[in-house]
Amino acid sequence: MVLEGLSKSYGDTSALRDVSLTIEDDEYLTLLGPSGSGKSTLLRLIAGLERPDKGTVQLNGEDITGLAPHRRGLGIVQQNYALFPHMTVFDNVAFGLRWREVDPVTDEAEVNRRVGEMLELVGLTGFEERAVGQISGGQKQRVSLARTLVTQPRLCLLDEPLGALDANLRERMTLELRRIRDTLGVTFMHVTGNENEALGMGDRMIVLDAGSAVMIAAPEQIFDQPQTVRVAQVLSAYNILQGSVRDGHFEHGGSHLPLPPGSDNAQYYAIRFESASIVPPDDPSVLMRATFVASEFTGGGVTYFLRGPEGVFEVERHLSRADPQVYKGGDMLGITWNAADALAFGSDGVLISASDMLGAA
Amino acid sequence: MSAHETSGKPGFFQRNKSYALLAPGVIWMTLFLVVPLGMMVYVSFWTQTTFAISSDLTLKSWQTFFASETYFGALMRTIRLWLTVLVLTFIIGYPAALFIGQFVRNKTTQTILLVACVIPFWTSFLIRVLAWRPMLGKEGAINIVLQEFGLIDAPIEVLLFTELSVIIGMVQIYVVFMVGPIAFMLARIDQSLIEAARDLGASGWTIFRKIIFPLSLPGVVVGAIFVSVMVLGEFATASALSGRKVNLLGNIIVTQVGSLKWAFAAVIGVILTIVMAVVITLLLRVVDLRKEL
Question: Whole-model pTM above 0.80?
């Protein structure tokens, strides 16, 4: 499927600007964007629930921009599951097979077989006769997925599929979704506002910001070398500092920070949460001073929130590397990092320094 | 163990305090509904003579009702008229409700349209009914217009003082009670359900049949109950628009009470109550309101 120059605005606000994208067969594509970035609009344009103002949607070389949703052979799993409340789980899943306009399955034995297979795949065998009001959120999610997948769409669009699930269930569904996709070989396009989900699940990832696709690449590449400062922001894994270059140093709030090679006219400077470390304020390696605000234990590590010269600075420390340190609020601390770990962006926000591959260990 | 539990339990009144909330309603309904209903059944077995009534029990009033062509005919006519009005209010009301509930997406416009439906209720019932006379009469508006355009030679007489005029009048008055509940249910349908059905490949008609209509059914049943209860007990529209030619059970009650035939009026009252109870029971069978609302 090829999207070309898709634009859409609602009144004066433009929701989507000139988005072009190629979706391959049999891939897991994630679409990451903060809320209001046009994720849902893009999904609805692809599904045909709305028409673009400009641009085309092509499927296998055929223009389907004006085609009604039910003739596109796509499936969309909505954020709120949209299960039919007056039907059982079985009837919900069978809906697309029985009632689609094109080529409905009239043989009930065939419907039984296919719905049965699909319920088995999503792990809901035995729930056929339950009313949809009697099952849990995670099960609704699976019914919704099964209902879409049973019609064998060429592309399955998932609108924040894990958004309404609790953390425990989310983790399990993450694995389930990948397993189900691998079994069926159908392309998934997974829309999410959660960077971990987007990074962890996708073969390829699209970062959407303010209606534009700002980066399309493999998750590793997006994470290590965000093309623009906005991408780094959306990932919420980078401390982004603003300043200017003077005498071979990046000046930010009175600190002189070492520049990565080849970044003479940087205006933004980014350092990953876990690349920075906290040292005593009088340590010779200190690059920047900050006051301690709070810390958060995340299980495998601790995230420290500090107040730098111009805003919050986050440092992540993995417990496998070091024991957690306890600081008091208001403590003055030093922060340091390797110059090679930093990224620099020009005044237009585009990456100008390519650091060495991070996390090679 | 159990003794200990008993001693620890709060007293009877303490435990059932919340039921006190029901007391005013229960007392009111007992005094003014349950007792009169029982009384009506009792009186229907009293002995009625031309000028007096005595409490000697007899089946005579009941026998008169089922033996008389006039009275039994009135029962049949009431049922026939009720069914006709019910079907017509549904046929006219559902599309209007569908428009308001599904195609008007703006909540404010929806409210304005629903309020517009009850504008006729700003005038009194009697005026609304009587206003049909200059419309439908032999020299009424409809006949004059049709004659002016040369569509008919002689005025259509069947328009007024017939069963037709009663039906026209009743449908106009009661259709809004059908529109309201249906529009309410339709407006509650989540749009994502319809999008999901479209995405699964269903055509517009299939979506209506399989999703929209079933989900609006509770509204249809509530509307049908409203219309049924009101039409079955009607007498004013019938007497005003039929020139007393179309007698419904309600009209007969009014006449009998007027001529102090209490026992006979009670018989018809009991029959009317039974008919309504049966109708409501059947309608509630159609859909499980407990589950839907």
Answer: no
